[in-house]
Amino acid sequence: MGAKHELGLIRKARIRLAGQLSKIRVLLADDHPGFTQIVESLLGSAYEVTGSVSNGRSLIEAAMKTLPDIIVTDVSMPILNGIDAAIQLKNSSCKAKIVFLSVHSDPEFVQACLSIGALGYVIKTQMATELMPAIQEALAGRVFVSPGLSHLN
User: Fold this and answer.
1) What is the dihedral sign for C-alpha 119, 123, 128, 130?
2) Each residue's pLDDT tens digit, 114-143
3) Sign for the pseudo-dihedral over CA of 152, 132, 56, 91
4) Which domains are present in the chain?
5) Which has the higher per-residue pLDDT, 2 or 64?
6) 64 in Cβ contact with 50 (< 8 Å)
């Protein structure tokens, strides 16, 4: 092996290692005490949780400050609901992909979230099996809706 080839292999290894070290940054928003801790434990070490907030106004502030890759938010929150907060974030050119995590299975909620550009909608009772796939799909630019709700979109 020549020196150039070895340097190329070293460079590729460093790039691969750097990619493994830079985790996807996730911001969590839910008004139920302790719920964001449950979500954070589900995400495990696969993602870096940049923070958790309990209302839509704080979601906007935290998103603009921490610049997450993904926002996982509830629909129903005080001060400003998750849908309105997501609209404001999109209008402020926030680049984060949005996944809603909600108890609401009403088609109107699902459609409202998807129509504003959210890429995921997961029912809270299914989060253990569906949140990670929803985040992965959102990162790839694809829509994920909890399978029980897929007939709604």
Assistant:
1) negative
2) 999 999 999 999 999 999 999 999 999 999
3) negative
4) 23-147 (3.40.50.2300)
5) 64
6) no
